[in-house]
C-alpha cells in the first residue's frame, strides 16, 4: 500500500487496490514481465479471451501500469463491461511503484531537463530501449522534450505497437517523478489532505497570494452568519486541488486526449490564482464599491486576477523557476494560465482566439471557469465550503461529477460531458446555488451591511492612500490600476478607517491638502465613514422596509424611484430621497433566464463518446418552470420610529402604484419557479 507522504519524499498518487490472490506470478516484479508472462497472468485471472489482443499489441508488464480505458478500446475490447473487468484486475498490480535506478556512467537524472540529444539516447540505452535511439536522434528529442512526450507523439515518431509506446513512457515517467523540492500537504475541512505541487507552493508563499488570507470569501455575510469566517485563501487552495483531481481523472480515463503534465500543472495554477484580483469583502468591492466610486465600468475581479498573476510572477522572479525546475514553456504556458482564469470568451465562436493551447484541448478551458454552462471546480469548492461554514445543507455531490466526467466532441469542439444519470445531480447543483443566494449571499441584512460598508469606503476614499509602484500614492478606488498598491488592499481597510484617531485625521488632511490644494478635503467625510462602520459593528443597521416582486423584468433601478418614495403622500415627518436605498436583486441559475443544463452534454453507458442534450421534460415535471426572478429591496437610513413608520407607509403605497407584489417575510421567499 502507498505510504504516508513525508518531508523527505514527495507523495505519490496511487490507488490502494485489493490483494491479488489468484495470479501465479509474484506481483513485486510484474514490471519485468515480457509478453508471455503478461498473457499467463491474464489466463490466471480468467481473462484468457483477451490474450491474443495483448500479444498482438506486444503488451509487457511495464505496459500494464499505464493501460487506460481508451487503450483497451483500441485493442478491440468494445464492451465497456469488458474493459472494466480488465482494468479491475490490472489495478491489483498498480500499487507497485518502480523506483528509478542509477547506473554507473548514466546521466544525472535530477537534471534531465538539461540533457541534449546524446544524453537522452544514452538514457534510452541504459533503460534497454536502444532500439529507439535512432528515432529519438532523428527527431532531436532532448531532456526538455522527454517531459511532454505522449502516446500520440511516440506513434508519430514510428513506435507502431502500443506495448512499445507503453514501455518507453514507463521509463520516461521515472524521470517525471523527480522533483527539485517535495510537495506539501494541506489539511482542509472540505477536501481532507490536499497535495500541492512544489511550484504551487512557490506561488502560495508570495505576498500577492498571502493577501487572500485577509479577504473574506463571503464579504458582509460574516456580519450575519457568524460561521462564515473563511477567506479567499483556503477557497483558492481548494479550487487548485479540485482542478488537479478533474484533469488527472480525464487523463487517466481518456489517454487519447494527450493531456500531459504541463497541462495538469497549468490547470492547477489557474485554479490557485483565479481569485487573486478580489478586493476587500470580495464581491462587495467589485459589485458595489467600484461602480459607486465611478471607476472603470469594465473592470472585473477576473481581469484584476490576470493582472495580479502577472505581477506575482514578475515580482517573485518565478519565470526561471517555472522553466528550469518545472518544465513550463514560456510564454505559451503563462498565456494558457491567464486564459483559463478569464475562461472562454465565447464558447460558441467557431474561431479559436487563444494562444495557450490549440482547439483540440478546448475542454481544459472549462475546468476552472466554465463560460459554457457554469459547471466548474470553482463552484464545486465554494458550494461545499460555503455550505459548511454557513450551516446550510449541500445537496450537490461534486464527487460524482469527478467520477463521471468525460470529454466528447460536440459540433467540432471537445467539451466536458457527464453521464446521463447525473443530470439530477447537476440540477441539485444549481438549486444549491439558488439556495445560497436566497438564504445567505443576498439576505436582506447582508445587503444592508454591504451597502453601509460601501458608503463608508466611498466617503473615506479620498483620505486613504496606498503606496504603489515608484512610490506613487493611490486612493482606494485607484488601487485597481496598480497591482503593487492593490496588493496592500484587504479587508483591513475597514479597521483602518474605524480606528483612525482625530489627530491622525487632521494630520492626514493637511498632508493631502498640501499635495493637492485644488481638492480641499472635508474631514466630515471620514468622520461619517467612521460613524457608519461603528454602526455596523454595533448593529445599528439601516432598516429594511420590505421587498417586492416587480410585474416584469427591470433592467436597472429607475432614477426617480427614491424621489417617488419620498413624496408618495404628505407626512408630518420629512423624508428625503437620500434617506432611501433601493436595490434590484436578481436570482437565477447563473445564466439569467436560460437553463444552464441546456448547455450541458451527456453521454450514455452504451456510447460514451457521443454527447447529447437532455431536456428538462425528460428529467422531471417537478423541476422549476421559471429560472429567474427579481426582488426590489427598499431600506431606510432613518432609524427613529416615526420616520420608519412613515417610510413604511410610503413603501407600501409606492408598491401599489407600481403594481409590485410585497413579500411579507423574506425568510419564506420560495425557490425559483415556485412563485
Would you identify the CATH H-level superfamily of the largest domain?
Hypothetical protein af1432
Q: For the residues shown, what is the average pLDDT?
A: 85
Strand count, sense and barrel status of the largest sheet are: 4 strands, antiparallel
Question: How many helices in DSSP terms?
Answer: 29
Q: Regarding CATH, which class of the largest domain?
A: Mainly Alpha
CATH architecture of the largest domain: Orthogonal Bundle
Class inferred from helices and paired strands:
alpha+beta
> What's the total number of strands?
11
List the helices and strands and how they pair.
Layout: H1 35-44, H2 51-56, H3 61-64, H4 69-74, H5 80-90, H6 117-126, H7 133-138, H8 143-146, H9 151-156, H10 162-176, E1 184-188, E2 192-196, H11 198-204, H12 207-210, H13 232-253, H14 261-273, H15 283-293, H16 301-315, H17 318-325, H18 332-342, H19 377-390, H20 398-404, E3 405-410, E4 413-419, H21 423-441, H22 444-460, E5 465-467, E6 473-475, H23 483-486, H24 492-498, H25 502-515, H26 523-537, E7 543-549, H27 561-566, E8 580-588, E9 602-603, H28 616-619, E10 628-636, H29 641-657, E11 661-663
Parallel strand pairs: 4-9
Antiparallel strand pairs: 1-2, 3-4, 5-6, 7-10, 7-11, 8-10
